Amino acid sequence: MEKSQQLLKEAVARAAVAELVPGMMLGIGTGSTVDCFIDAMADSGLRITAAVASSERSASRLRSRGFMVTPLSAITQPLDFYVDGADEIDSSRCMIKGGGAALTREKIVASASRRFLCIVDASKQVKVLGAFPLPVEVIEMALVPVSWAFSALGGRPVLREGVVTDNGHPILDVHGLRFENPLEWEDRLNAIAGIVTHGIFARQKADLALVATASGVVRLA
Ligand code: 5RP
């Protein structure tokens, strides 16, 4: 990663911490931007009431920075914010996620949160979602029929070699699709048997996106 992109991630992470108030219950996403967010939150000294992690990776980073990790099953009311990065985000704040293979738990924790705060650098902004291959977590025995289904839709599914999700499933990355209407696509793809989760986040799009640019952090709401 370029040094400048790392600086943008750190800047947007600090901006996200500034959106929070002490005592909040948070869902924590996964990825290099979220790693910066966890570090920024720790450095700020902000006290939160609960942190629910979307991956083992984020859980261990949270613990290493002194936060207690709460299982989602222990939560009795929706989390205040779900904070996560994205692989692509469009102007309506729909996203492609799952580059870090955590998409299923990310969708689940996001669904248990009142607001989704997306933190990205400007390279993630797109007009139409789909240049980034769509991550799809699949039940292993369904890899062949799910691949057929994506091929019939005009996509090119590629198995992500050597990757198994925290839930024990393989990932297909589907190239060559454009998601002009992410909401319709999300529902259509949900109907394919054997898919655990795909990476279109339109039903759970971001309520607020903070986008780090060379000239500062821009708010998309
Ligand atoms: C993980 C994700 C991440 O949010 C996405 O891949 C962005 O990661 P990064 O912040 O490292 O660019 O969806 O499953």
The dominant shape is globular
Evaluate the radius of gyration.
Answer: 17 Å
* Helix-strand sequence: HEHEHEEEHEEHEEHEEEE
Residue share in β-strands: 25-35%
Average of per-residue pLDDT values: 97
- Number of discrete domains: 2
Structural class: alpha/beta
| Structure ligands | ribulose-5-phosphate
Largest sheet geometry:
6 strands, mixed
Would you summarize the structure shown here?
With 221 residues, the protein is an alpha/beta fold. The protein has helices at 3-18, 32-44, 56-64, 103-111, 143-152, 182-190, and strands at 25-28, 50-53, 79-84, 88-89, 95-96, 113-121, 134-138, 156-159, 171-175, 195-198, 200-201, 208-213, 216-220.
Features:
221 residues; alpha/beta; Rossmann fold; Alpha-Beta Plaits; 2 domains; 6 helices; 13 strands; 30% helix; 26% strand; binds ribulose-5-phosphate
Architecture overview:
By secondary structure, the protein is an alpha/beta fold. The protein folds into two domains: 3-126 and 203-220, 3-Layer(aba) Sandwich (Rossmann fold); 134-197, ACT domain (Alpha-Beta Plaits, 2-Layer Sandwich), CATH 3.30.70. The chain is built from six helices and 13 strands. The chain has helices at 3-18, 32-44, 56-64, 103-111, 143-152, 182-190, and strands at 25-28, 50-53, 79-84, 88-89, 95-96, 113-121, 134-138, 156-159, 171-175, 195-198, 200-201, 208-213, 216-220. The strands form three sheets. It has a six-stranded mixed sheet. Strands 8-9-7-10 form a four-stranded antiparallel sheet. A hairpin with a 5-residue loop joins strand 4 and strand 5 (95-96). Helix 1 (3-18) crosses helix 2 (32-44). The chain is globular, with a radius of gyration of 17 Å. It starts with a helix and ends with a strand. The chain binds ribulose-5-phosphate. Ribulose-5-phosphate binds at residues 29-33, 84-87, 97-103, 106.
